[in-house]
Amino acid sequence: MRTEIIRTKIAEIQESLELIRENLPDSFENFAPLGLLKDGMYKRIEFCIQNVFDICAIINTDLRFGIPRSDDDIHGILLRNGVIDDEMMAKLKGMKGFRNIIVHRYAGIDDRLSYEFLSERLVDFEEFIGTITDFMNRKSNF
User: Fold this and answer.
1) Which of 114, 94, 108 is nearest to 28 (CA)?
2) pTM
3) Which domains does the chain show, CATH number per domain?
4) Contact call for residues 45 and 90 (beta carbons, < 8 A)
5) DSSP string covering 6-27
6) Separation between Cα atoms, residue 88 and residue 104, nearest integer Å
7) What is the number of alpha carbons within 13 Å of residue 37 lying toward its C-beta?
8) What are phi and psi of 2, to 5 degrees?
């Protein structure tokens, strides 16, 4: 398995989460007018989500779990093979939904919803990292 690539992606997620935390204000009122800084946080969280999906795809491919047709298929395959649980599957769906809003700007980006995601859901990324690290440790010397 491409553990070095997975480690690098995990480090990139952690770095981005730290940057977001360092720059995320303690209230929505202070977040809303941030302009370019806010856009930077959006790009960093998009980057985190993409790295999460990349890690899932690498594990699925390298362990030959199955041939997916979409990210959702990959997550389902990982669930069936014991890499993630139902709770993590739901969190991955939430990440994908938020990523789609940012990337495609569906109905514009709702700053209040985004602030809530950034304030409350960063822990999901840490839980994902823990889940993947635990899985890798069970499979080999990660």
Assistant:
1) 114
2) 0.93
3) 3-139 (1.20.120.580)
4) no
5) HHHHHHHHHHHHHHHHHH--SS
6) 24
7) 13
8) -80, 70
